[in-house]
Design brief:
145 residues, Glutaredoxin, 3 helices, DUF1636 family protein, DUF1636
Length: 145
């Protein structure tokens, strides 16, 4: 096993990304309406600052950055998700307006993964502490007997 989140080489389960190849395109989705507990209603929201900070950090990276109005993780804002087609997705919370470089570093790790998981080792602390959920692909779900 490579780390606590990757599958074992002799696992009976198929690879999470099917035929995952390192270098797969990764997208960071930032919740632009996010605010932290205790933040007021003022605009622009801290989530917008995180979106701008992430886009700036990704300027020279092979990572797409998009924003969405709400990820529904309000109790653990600021929030973002990291997606890779055909692979499990990751949702993070408890981020700061300046966490963009951490999100980009995580996206780069994910892009280079051969098994479709974002390695735990090497993740910035904000992504180790802030993991809210890993969301499986529909193809990786099993029927209930």
């Amino acid at each position: 096993m490579t780390d606590g989140f990757s599958r074992q080489a002799d696992s009976p389960f198929p690879p999470v990304c099917g035929t995952a190849e390192a270098g797969g395109a990764v997208t960071i989705v930032v919740c632009s309406s996010c605010r932290r507990p205790g933040d007021g209603e003022a605009l622009p929201r801290p989530g917008s600052a995180l979106a701008r900070n992430t886009a700036e950090a990704a300027r020279d990276a092979d990572v797409r950055v998009r924003q969405v109005a709400c990820l529904g993780n309000c109790r653990r804002g600021l929030s973002a998700a990291i997606l890779r087609e055909g692979c499990w997705s990751y949702v993070f919370g408890g981020l700061a307006p300046h966490s963009g470089p951490d999100l980009v570093a995580g996206a780069r790790l994910f892009a280079e993964s051969h098994d479709g998981f974002m390695p735990f080792r090497g993740r910035p602390e904000a992504l180790k502490r802030g993991l809210v959920a890993r969301i499986p692909t529909l193809d990786s779900l099993k029927e209930i007997p």
